[in-house]
Amino acid sequence: MGVIDNEAELWQRARQDDGWAFAQIFDLHRDRIHGHALSLMGNLHDADEIVAAAFFELWRKRRTVVLVDRSVRPWLLVATVNLSRNARRSTARYRRLLQSLPHPEPVLAHNAEQGEASLRLASSLGRLAPDDAALFVLTALEGLSVANAAQTIGLKPGTARVRLHRARARLRAELGDLKPDTRPAMEGSVS
Description:
Largest sheet: none
Radius of gyration: 30 Å
Helix content: over 70%
Oligomer: single chain
Number of strands: 0
Structural class: mainly alpha
């Protein structure tokens, strides 16, 4: 029995829910279908997605797919073309939508000094422990109370106060020449 006869036999078994037989069909056609998808889509990631979708559809429709010349390859090739066309249309619609949305104007610093201050603050925050940076941002920049910020991060309010105090001290040491506003955060209760 040749490869074509073997494929027809594998397909009959796959139609009866034999996953091993379906895997053999996948191995038999994967490279050819992938090459076809790559030529249609132009990049490996999209081609991989199309191949996965084509074989998924083959499995899903296994009871109704008819062999052509005792092979599922023609069905897979047509499915690959259709899936590629749908993917390209979907991508085009998505790009048109993004282009139609209003684009916010970039926020520019009022002057070079303010821009430098923003960059230095971001750099200093990046060197803090993640929870400490989050506490500072939530309290100093977003106006949350220490209790609410602590709850958001999952800390006890007392622990948050100590960590926030240390973070502010470190930021003052690094950014003191900028004369930052170091108003204390509101103590408030957890809501």
